[in-house]
Each structure stands twice: as C-alpha cells, then as structure tokens.
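User: Hi! I have a protein structure encoded as tokens and I'd like to know what sequence might fold into it. I'm fairly new to this, so please keep things simple.
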C-alpha cells in the first residue's frame, strides 16, 4: 500500500476542502453566487500580494501568465532585459523571441543568484529597454533572486518591473505595491494549493497604461480587457469555475494559518530543516542563496537522479522532481511548498535515505532523519 505524497516544486498537494469544493455541482459563472466566490478569492489574493492594485485571473498555466505580461507591456520590435539563470529565467527570453521583442539576457550561472550590479549594467547598455523581467524563485535551480534590490534598479532606470513569483508568493516576502513591482505573475498549482490551470497577474497603474498602448496583436490574453471586466466583477471568458471554488477553500486555509506572515514562517522553517537534513546526509546543495520553496541537491556520485526520482515514487509514493536542462540526472528537487506537514517531510527524508542506500549510497543511515527530526522539534511553531 502506498500513499501519494507529491513533494515536487509544483504541482503541490491540496487541502481536503479544496478537493471537496471541486466535487460538488457548481454555479454558473455569470451569477451572484459565483461572483461572490471570485470576489472573496481576489480579495485574499490582494492581501497576500500586499497590494491594492487589481489582480487579473487567467485560465492558463503559469506560462500563460508570463506570456500575457510580455505581450501586453511590450510591442514587437521593443526591448527588454531578463535575468537568465535557469529554465524559467530562459522562458522570458523565449516568449520575447516568439513575439519579435528584443530581449537582452543577464546570464547567471545555474544555481547562483544574480548580482544586481550586473542587471544595472545591462540596463545601462540597453538604451530604450522598456521592461525588466526576473524570476523571484528560480524553480529549476532553487535559487532566490533579490527582487527588492532589482526593483530599486528598475525604478532608477525608469523601466517597468515584472516578476515571476510563481514559487515565491506566500513563501518569501513580496510586498508588491511598496516594492513597486508593476506586474507579478503567480499560478494556481504552487503555494496556492489548487490544481494547475489558473494564473494571476497583479497590475500597477503604469503597467495598465502600457498595456493599453501596446501594439502587440492580442485576443485571449488581453490585459486591459480583463481589468475592465474585473471592474464589473466579471471575466472576459468563461473562467475555471471549479478551480476558483477550490481556491476559496485553500486561500482560506492560508488566511486561518496566519496569512502571509504565517505562510512565510512555515516555509522558512521547513526549508531550513530539509536543507539541514540533506547536508547531514553528506549531500551538496545547488543554490548559494536558496529559495524556501524547494531544496535542490546534487545526488551522490554515481547515482542518476532520474532513477532516484522514479524509485522514490514506485517504492514509497514520494514524488520529487529531477533536474532540468544541463542538471538533468544530476540534481533532485525536494519541494516543500503549499500543503505539507512535518510528517510529510520526515517521511520523505526516510524514503530518500532508504532509496539512496538501495541505489548503493551506504553509510549515512539515519543521519538525515535525525537532523530533520531535531530541526523540526526545535524549530518552533508549525
Ligand atoms: C511552475 C513555474 C512556472 C509555471 O509553469 P507552468 O507549467 O506553465 O504552470 C513558471 N515559473 C516558475 C518559476 C515556476 O516554478
């Protein structure tokens, strides 16, 4: 018998109430009953983004949200700068390429966090750049970038500042309005604890103005259209009704657990405990300045993490993610985001120790387990 424990950096596991919300007959989306659910969801999202600016719900995975930001703020032929230090950092440039937007990358070694001075230099060398893109928590490497510092640089250079916060919202502090982040993109299947299928964009007044002026061809992913509909408590298209109803439950769980501050604390505590356990097992962490959403770790030499991830799943029902791109086979990623508890983390470390030993890595039995148990025991309130 195996229980499924999804400890990937997205999708995450779901609270029971979210599953239940999706398993009952739902109202039509143009009714007061549904509008009231959507209002509640968007109200909580604004609170969690620490902003009064509109938050647009989109029916798309997170990447649809990234594309929406790119094409609404920029027109073909215009220029942007993007931090590129992993799979998601690369995505900004790929979207720009697809739309004929000239994107200058600031290259960062995978696992490292960008030096704000390098971004400052790139903006200085890209006259006419209109937008700076960054991934707050780079999920492919587990590295965290300094959004607050980058925001100051973006303001100094007078460019719009857009952040992919898909694995940082509710995990790291991101006061959207006081840090003047023009667009923040988030997604349903990470810390929001609902299935994949929705993306959200918080939109500053400056960003909305730019979106109204953009000459990019748009039909579905039209930000001004969505913001105007929102003012009438509406969405331009049929929204993902069942996900919104699930979200109302999941966000309620987060609110009841202490809101933004409680969520940030919980993720920090779990991340510190997991990192300590990996180090106690003699494993090397990839990022220098790690995100609290996940722990990215090199496997012991001779062990292919593709095999490790499969084995953990088939033997224990514990699902981690492997490496992407040049890190494929070399690292595994242990997600501790959203709906997890201490016993999930302890169980996963136990499963990892047993699987590593089965794959030939001997001699550390119990070291990780002891470390995570001690850290969680002493790490204060859950
Ligand atoms: C998960 C994730 C995305 C979204 O990817 P989709 O597969 O389109 O949902 C984007 N950026 C980051 C940093 C992510 O972790």
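Assistant: Happy to help. Inverse folding works backwards from shape to sequence: for each of the 382 positions I chose a residue that suits the local structure. Here it is:
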């Amino acid at each position: 018998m195996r229980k499924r424990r999804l400890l990937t950096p997205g999708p995450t596991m779901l609270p029971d109430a979210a599953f239940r919300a999706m398993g009952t007959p739902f109202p039509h989306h143009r009714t007061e009953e549904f509008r009231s659910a959507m209002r509640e969801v968007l109200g909580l999202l604004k609170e969690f983004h620490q902003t009064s600016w509109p938050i647009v719900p989109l029916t798309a995975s997170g990447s649809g949200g990234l594309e929406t930001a790119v094409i609404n703020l920029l027109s073909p032929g215009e220029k942007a700068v993007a931090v590129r230090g992993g799979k998601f950092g690369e995505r900004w440039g790929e979207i720009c390429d697809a739309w004929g937007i000239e994107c200058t990358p600031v290259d960062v070694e995978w696992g490292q966090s960008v030096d704000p001075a390098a971004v400052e230099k790139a903006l200085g060398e890209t006259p006419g750049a209109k937008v700076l893109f960054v991934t707050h928590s780079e999920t492919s490497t587990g590295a965290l970038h300094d959004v607050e510092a980058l925001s100051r640089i973006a303001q100094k250079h007078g460019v719009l500042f857009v952040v992919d916060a898909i694995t940082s919202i509710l995990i790291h502090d991101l006061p959207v309005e006081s840090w003047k982040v023009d667009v923040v993109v988030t997604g349903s299947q990470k810390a929001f604890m609902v299935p994949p299928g929705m993306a959200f964009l918080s939109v500053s007044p400056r960003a909305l103005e730019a979106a109204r002026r953009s000459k990019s061809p748009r039909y579905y992913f039209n930000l001004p259209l969505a913001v105007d509909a929102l003012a009438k408590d509406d969405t331009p298209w049929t929204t993902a009704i069942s996900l919104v109803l699930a979200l109302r439950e999941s966000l309620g769980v987060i609110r009841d657990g202490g809101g933004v501050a409680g969520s940030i604390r919980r993720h920090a505590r779990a991340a510190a405990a997991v990192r300590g356990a990996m180090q106690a097992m003699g494993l090397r962490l990839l990022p220098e300045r790690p995100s609290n959403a996940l722990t990215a770790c090199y496997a012991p030499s001779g062990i292919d993490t593709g095999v490790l991830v499969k084995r953990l799943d088939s033997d224990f029902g514990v699902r981690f993610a492997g490496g992407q791109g040049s890190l494929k086979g070399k690292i595994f990623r242990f997600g501790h985001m959203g709906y997890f508890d201490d016993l999930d983390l302890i169980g996963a470390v136990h499963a990892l120790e047993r699987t590593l030993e089965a794959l030939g890595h001997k001699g550390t039995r119990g070291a990780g387990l002891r470390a995570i148990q001690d850290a969680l025991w002493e790490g204060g309130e859950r």
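A useful reference point when you look it over: The domain at 5-10+258-378 is CATH 3.90.1150.10 (Aspartate Aminotransferase, domain 1). Feel free to ask if any position seems puzzling.
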